[in-house]
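so i finally got all the pieces together for this one. its two components total, 454 residues if u count the protein bits. some of the lines might not be protein, just check the labels. i wanna see the whole assembly predicted at once instead of chain by chain like last time, that was a mess tbh
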Amino acid sequence: MELLAFGDTGWGDELFRATLMTIAVSITAMLIGFSFAAIFTPLKLSKFKSFNLIANIYTTVIRGVPELLVIYLFFFGGSGAIMFVASMFGYNEYIEINAFITGSFAIGIISGAYSTEVFRGAIQSIDKGQFEAAKVLGFSKFKQFYKIILPQMLRLAIPNLSNVWQITLKDTSLISVTGLVEIMRQSYIAAGSTRDPLFFYSFAAVLYLLLTFLSMKFLNKLEAKYSRGY
Amino acid sequence: MDFELMINSFPKLLNAAGVTIKLLSVSLIVGLFIGLLFAILRLNKNFFINKFAYGYSYIFRGTPLLVQIFIIYFGFGQIEYLRSTFLWVILKEPYWCAIIAFALNTGAYTSEILRSAFQTIKPGLIEAGQSLGISSKIIFYKIQIPIAIRQSLPAYGNEIILMMKGTSLASTVTLMDLTGVAKYIISTTFKPIEVFVVAGGIYLFMTFIIHNVIKFLEKKYGFN
């Protein structure tokens, strides 16, 4: 137990901060994923075949390629790509991007592919009459979406979005390969310096279980709130 | 784009894809048995057996696969007692550690898939078997299992693809699978995009094959 003490003697405070980092990365990645979904869901539902194709390539490639490979692409390619863009503006120094940004972006793109599919499914299962009624009542396009489609879509999407959240949360463990100090990386460091990997990795497993358990509790409440009246 | 590198790295990556396929198939076969066993335990009416099976699937589905591999590969090596038993022959090999972790992980997901498939079987089918005087053992093997397999095919297909992506984590315990070799080539040439295109292409091709095989099986064993 003294291994988990707070302060200089134990790893308690380090692991606590690492847990906060995992939560921060997961939330950032989820939000980045939502912004990708906001771009690609309309493309998926568009009447134009070429838009469909772009969105389908995105979701198929991301869901068919291992997360770790995507992370390596961003980890090794991220600063190269930024430096390339910077060199066009005449800046030729070495630029290193922060591991937090690369990591959340990589996980965000993966999570976005899953979110896109969820939103597409949710919008498609809204009754067609709802769209028509909104149009007939003379709502503007913007109001149609925000007042009528979005609330119904959220109700249908939340159960599946909580699955996406679980996947995203577990995927953040893979960012440890880039050196970002989240739960997995911190356990690796602690296991290396105390030579007690069994304890620290099991403790990491407990932390992840706790996070998934608590987020499930919260998401179930949210789901209940959005399905009032059904 | 460095096409020469892409062409040169293709045979190496294809070779490594063999390791990925081997890891995937062995862990899927073992995982299927584990999944079936735990699905049956989940349907047991005994409170403790039921909760034990639930706990297993909850723990393995609630933690990242990376943690599971690390516990088995780095953690179990620390137990002095294990080192003296025959199990050490298996647990000192990263290959077997990865397979154990993958099999236990996919077993947990498979048990959930099979359990829900067993629960959706209409009771009338089992009652029909009973009224025909078929023993409960044969009802299980000849009626429940075939229907459950058919029901669970689409979900199991997804699980195979998820597991295929999961085998990439073997590269974190020094195994040179497709992702491991891809990472090696990237870190020696610093050409991440080219290698990603080739390695990703191989992964997508495997996904495509698995997807179509499952679709074919679904059609073949479909009810209508």
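DSSP finds eight helices and no strands in chain A.
The interface with chain B takes residues 60-61, 63-69, 72-73, 76-77, 80, 170-171, 173-174, 176-177, 184, 187-188, 191, 195-198, 201-202, 204-205, 208-209, 212-213 of chain A (CB under 8 Å).
anyway lmk what u think
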